[in-house]
Specification:
Strand order of the largest sheet: 1-4-3-2
Radius of gyration: 20 Å
Order of helices and strands: EHEEEHHH
Helix content: 25-40%
Number of strands: 4
Distance between the termini: 47 Å
Largest sheet: 4 strands, antiparallel
Mean pLDDT: 81
Length: 138
């Protein structure tokens, strides 16, 4: 956080770092928002459905703005939904061109995943530096 790096992402409610009040989804009314603050981080718990919550962790904003529409989404949830598409596209491309072999050893699986991400990053850098628009021709 010292280098102006920010964090935005969902966090699992099973994690022990989550406050006990945020883990309990029972009794949460629909479209309600709860905010928990710590030094440098903010946890927003949004209930899109009755008895279902989504935990979003962010380090950038100090205030939470809630939209005026019907769903009353906090700005952290809308920012996450808007920014996550890059990660989803990257995952989709890596899955399509995955280098893997059938193995049960987790270090090998991690190595193959890192290899796939490195290849995807190299391809992105190549197309950005050469401005190439290559097309598939079969």
């Amino acid at each position: 956080m010292k280098c102006s790096t920010t964090l935005l992402g969902t966090i699992n409610k099973i994690r022990q770092e989550i406050p006990p009040q945020a883990k309990n989804a029972k009794g949460c009314e629909r479209f309600s928002t709860q905010v928990y603050r710590s030094d440098g981080a903010m946890l927003t718990v949004y209930a899109p459905k009755t008895n279902k919550t989504v935990c979003v962790l962010r380090t950038m904003y100090q205030h939470v703005k809630i939209s005026d529409d019907r769903k009353r989404k906090p700005n952290m949830v809308t920012d996450y939904n808007r920014m996550k598409c890059g990660v989803d596209i990257m995952d989709q491309k890596v899955r399509a061109y995955m280098v893997h072999a059938g193995t049960c050893q987790w270090p090998v699986v991690v190595f193959y995943n890192l290899l796939g991400l490195a290849a995807m990053n190299a391809h992105v850098l190549y197309t950005a530096c050469t401005w190439s628009t290559e097309s598939k021709s079969c």
